[in-house]
Amino acid sequence: MALLPDHAGPAQRLLHAGFLAYCGLVFAFLILPLVVIVPLSFNAEPYFTLSRGMLTLDPAAFSLRWYEDFFGSAVWRSAAVNSLIVATVSTLLATVLGTLAALGLSRPQMPCRQAVTALLISPLIVPLIIAGAGMYFVFARLGLVGTFAGLVLSHTVLGAPFVLITVTATLSKFDTTLVNAAAISGAGPVTILRRVTLPIIAPGVVSGAIFAFGSSLDEIVVTLFIGSGETQTVPRQMWVGLREQLSPTILAVATLLIALSVLLLACVGLLRRLGRGRTPA
Amino acid sequence: MTAVLVEPSPRSLRRSLVAGSGSRRRAAVLLVLPLLVFLLALFVLPIGYLLWNAVDEAPVAGGLSRTVQALRGWDGRSQPADAVFDALALDLREAEADDSVQRIGARLNFEVAGLRRILRRTAAAAAGEGPATPRILAADPVWRSPQIWAAIRDVGAVPTMVNLLAALDLKRSPTGEIAAVAPDYRVNAPLFLRTLWIGLLVTLLCLALGYPVAYLIANVAPRTAGILLLMVVVPLWTSLLVRTAAWMALLQRNGVINDALVGLGLLDDGDRLALIFNARATVIAMTHILLPFMILPLYSVMRTIPPVYMRAAESLGASRALAYRRVYVPQVAPGIVSGCLLVFIMSLGYYITPALLGGEGGQMISNMIAYHVRESLNWGLASALGALLLAGVLVLYFVYVRAVGADRIRVGG
């Protein structure tokens, strides 16, 4: 549908221009706060603002000192390593658990499907503060607070629903006659899963894994309760930085994270295109 | 792929057909089971534990069990009978032996300030010989007042209502009537109201900002729509902390917005605006963070609305405005409902953004829960606040699942 009919009168054209301007402002509101961070992270001065030199594009006003600060700091480096370890392990767990559950839920024989689905994706709905406090109470008793195991388990809980949702979405377009064909051809359930189902739903599985990975890298609320100084992650270190010594190093980290999220997003977009190519409509 | 074609023998075919439906059902359940068990153990159980925490104050209920028992028949007005004092002396002697006086006192201290100290002193006196009543009264005359006994009675009950009442700024008097606490002490109920208010405001702002944008994206050429969608999804993908940090950089006293206003001569350097550390900063940043969750459901509904209905209405003589209101909007309604519910549900539990941007006036209920878990260590009250928040969210989630369907929840657009 065209937004503006050809026969539109001047009043309608004016209204339309106003509508477009309004949308432009909303897009600016969405994007500008993120865009502003990028030049700020190259600020030569330790301020959270654009200096006069930066506005006149004076090269002396820009520097990489906050990035050097980040890569040179043992605290940030170990936080980055911890984050990657926790995200990798929890993503593997979440992907296996989530994919299996999605395969089960997609079968017509699955009893109480609606209720089970609602329960399995509830970690996305229950406020993180409640999940965090509850896990803190229980994990403290089990000696898991401040350990990698505690962080991995809690991040798996929060990441698995993402995998479940993306794989379920892929399976909804899945042609079950392929499974029947394989079964008639004599393939056992494991062979069918390995040779037929998984290759077809692979894009969904991988994008679910990317969602889980991203959610773990960004997890802060539960990590505040379950983590500790020894298992410091990047978000937890950012939290400390934002509350205590506000330094532009944080903005350098933020810029790197924005770049990372754009990269992950590009991967998911690519996978979606792949997924479309693989399943005949 | 190399498939080996095997002729199934008639016997195994019949067997598998008979066994079919039952074993398929079992297979489906077995596939779901690992995640189900995992989430039950590490997510549902901890939340259940939190809920139980709200109504069971184990140190008091367990440590002073005899006293709580003896207080059953007490009228709440007079000094309790000697049997109650005896029970307290016995309980405290045991508590002293296993070092739990400190924990009991810490919990009771939330109800009556100073009780921790009083209890420690009384425990020392309880160790002596002879009738308990005079010894306890000699240790501290405050044991004459019903207040302190009522606190033990109410906190020690299982289930105890003390925390849930306190979460709503209510308190039971020694004689049992429930009444609101003095206005100066009301903190939780106003915080719940503020949380609801901020959630509502953020939802309405997201709708006002998101609706036109979703409409635009749904009605432009696919290529343009792709680019515009990217501008919605990139913020969604960006770390919550990054977006909150961005708003800190923008709203600070020496931040980008104030500097720009001063630089443009619109503002005197002396009276920079207080943009951060208030409820407004919380609302602005939360609207920014939650806006994609409004745009995407609206867009996915608008995309499916065929334009012919609008054209039909117009060709039948409806003005564009009338056709829009009577034909278009009703078809978007499911998207509006799901977007608003989603944003409202998510906003209620916000913690990081209010903590970093909200200052005193922009805190929400989650911040109070975190405070009681980590700082005041009043876990019972933290759990009660959490239970009330969870109840509200679950009711809304139930409505959401009813309206939208749990299996239709999508991520990332």
Automatic annotation (TrEMBL), chain A:
<keyword id="KW-1003">Cell membrane</keyword>
<keyword id="KW-0812">Transmembrane</keyword>
<keyword id="KW-0813">Transport</keyword>
<feature type="transmembrane region" description="Helical">
    <location>
        <begin position="246"/>
        <end position="271"/>
    </location>
</feature>
<feature type="transmembrane region" description="Helical">
    <location>
        <begin position="19"/>
        <end position="42"/>
    </location>
</feature>
<comment type="similarity">
    <text>Belongs to the binding-protein-dependent transport system permease family.</text>
</comment>
<dbReference type="InterPro" id="IPR000515">
    <property type="entry name" value="MetI-like"/>
</dbReference>
<feature type="transmembrane region" description="Helical">
    <location>
        <begin position="79"/>
        <end position="103"/>
    </location>
</feature>
<feature type="transmembrane region" description="Helical">
    <location>
        <begin position="200"/>
        <end position="226"/>
    </location>
</feature>
<keyword id="KW-0472">Membrane</keyword>
<feature type="transmembrane region" description="Helical">
    <location>
        <begin position="145"/>
        <end position="167"/>
    </location>
</feature>
<feature type="domain" description="ABC transmembrane type-1">
    <location>
        <begin position="80"/>
        <end position="269"/>
    </location>
</feature>
<dbReference type="InterPro" id="IPR035906">
    <property type="entry name" value="MetI-like_sf"/>
</dbReference>
<protein>
    <submittedName>
        <fullName>Spermidine/putrescine transport system permease protein</fullName>
    </submittedName>
</protein>
<keyword id="KW-0997">Cell inner membrane</keyword>
<feature type="transmembrane region" description="Helical">
    <location>
        <begin position="115"/>
        <end position="139"/>
    </location>
</feature>
<dbReference type="Pfam" id="PF00528">
    <property type="entry name" value="BPD_transp_1"/>
</dbReference>
<keyword id="KW-1133">Transmembrane helix</keyword>
Automatic annotation (TrEMBL), chain B:
<dbReference type="InterPro" id="IPR035906">
    <property type="entry name" value="MetI-like_sf"/>
</dbReference>
<keyword id="KW-0813">Transport</keyword>
<feature type="transmembrane region" description="Helical">
    <location>
        <begin position="281"/>
        <end position="301"/>
    </location>
</feature>
<comment type="similarity">
    <text>Belongs to the binding-protein-dependent transport system permease family. CysTW subfamily.</text>
</comment>
<feature type="transmembrane region" description="Helical">
    <location>
        <begin position="27"/>
        <end position="52"/>
    </location>
</feature>
<dbReference type="InterPro" id="IPR000515">
    <property type="entry name" value="MetI-like"/>
</dbReference>
<keyword id="KW-0472">Membrane</keyword>
<feature type="transmembrane region" description="Helical">
    <location>
        <begin position="225"/>
        <end position="250"/>
    </location>
</feature>
<feature type="transmembrane region" description="Helical">
    <location>
        <begin position="196"/>
        <end position="218"/>
    </location>
</feature>
<feature type="transmembrane region" description="Helical">
    <location>
        <begin position="332"/>
        <end position="357"/>
    </location>
</feature>
<protein>
    <submittedName>
        <fullName>Spermidine/putrescine transport system permease protein</fullName>
    </submittedName>
</protein>
<keyword id="KW-1003">Cell membrane</keyword>
<dbReference type="Pfam" id="PF00528">
    <property type="entry name" value="BPD_transp_1"/>
</dbReference>
<keyword id="KW-1133">Transmembrane helix</keyword>
<feature type="domain" description="ABC transmembrane type-1">
    <location>
        <begin position="192"/>
        <end position="400"/>
    </location>
</feature>
<keyword id="KW-0812">Transmembrane</keyword>
<feature type="transmembrane region" description="Helical">
    <location>
        <begin position="377"/>
        <end position="400"/>
    </location>
</feature>
